[in-house]
Fold:
Amino acid sequence: MSNIPSNIPEKTIERLSEYRRTLLRCHKQGITHIFSHVLAGMHGITAVQVRRDLMLIGFSSDTKKGYDVKVLIDFISSILDSESPMNIGVIGMGHLGQAITKYFNSKDLKLKITAAFDIDQNKVGTMIDGIPVFHMDEFEERVSELGINIVVLSSPARVASELDVPIINAGIKGVLNFTSKPLNLPHGIVVENYDITTLLEKVAYFVKENEEKDI
Amino acid sequence: MSNIPSNIPEKTIERLSEYRRTLLRCHKQGITHIFSHVLAGMHGITAVQVRRDLMLIGFSSDTKKGYDVKVLIDFISSILDSESPMNIGVIGMGHLGQAITKYFNSKDLKLKITAAFDIDQNKVGTMIDGIPVFHMDEFEERVSELGINIVVLSSPARVASELDVPIINAGIKGVLNFTSKPLNLPHGIVVENYDITTLLEKVAYFVKENEEKDI
DNA sequence: TGGCGATTGTTTATTTTGTAACAATAGTAA
DNA sequence: TTACTATTGTTACAAAATAAACAATCGCCA
Structure:
């Protein structure tokens, strides 16, 4: 068994996920081999970066006909995917929460959304896109029962500040936070913040910069 | 007029947006001054990073009572905000598109969502959360008419591949892409990709890594 | 008023990330 | 076969981002 490198850069992990997505699309189209510069072009990056990423995870093809799409997909999966299932809970079943569950249900992924949580009595007790919606009061209980280890925060920001404690108590290991409220969680918990306002303000800033450069 | 530094790191821009959000919240609560380490703590980063970010944009306070919240908000705004309005269009008015518009309408931001585009005849011609929904066929026309320079892509991935050309033709300057399909746009256009699957796979990967580290 | 502690602004080092250069070799075609 | 091209894997370099170390100075209190 080849030793899997353990210190893979964060950015490389992101790109591996993106590569795999693209490769799966190619695989569906019957493409069996792909050159590094073709894969790179599809992502707007250089071929060197693709090859370097693959080197970092210990993948090599030594043929000059391009990478075998299926083999590469499996290799990336062996890096990214966990053997034990990752169960995901969604907190906040508004538009954003529903967008995420709907999106995931349509895919065949190792990651599974197994429950949603909300405080709206009209939603609690129902199924949305095949996912049961529980009341936030049941959070810890259901997390434990369903083996949830990751949560997506898609609630309004004002609710988010009250979620630190239940998330810690329930033993959640990873959080994908779409609210604008920074969380206050211990280091052992993986947190990724993607506030949509920040993302847009960032785009707007660089658009502004580009325009000023042109003048 | 103090010269505004023009080469601010991308990560600093992100953090500035986050600082401002937090500062606005503090301002509402009547907090007038804030120490660098307090602001840092709210974001799970170090005080050094906060001070360095502020240094990079040329902000200094020289008092030791902490930063004046209101003054700092205005200073950050002078960096981030454009004088000419940034008008945003949303492509794809599914759950994600609606989540974004709803979210933005409730805030008082310089960025304004002024139109949405879709191909669903049930949505076209209606108003959703105060935003008019046009058919994608009208895209270029409406972009020009409404002065839209940024778009949010929240359509299904399979549609996204057909959007490169209209986006270029309409003269869009910035794209926030939530689809899994990488776009093929020239360098002059600012593109930020945030595929939700990738974000979740990243969190899942580092959760897995943490667990393996503990064993 | 004078010194102590706390906070800031700046410089310097370390780590991370991205880019470029180069050597090795599988495929190709005469 | 043999030279050539294209593609790969690796090493070395450059840039960006983060963290640490340090010097300067304001506020506080005796």
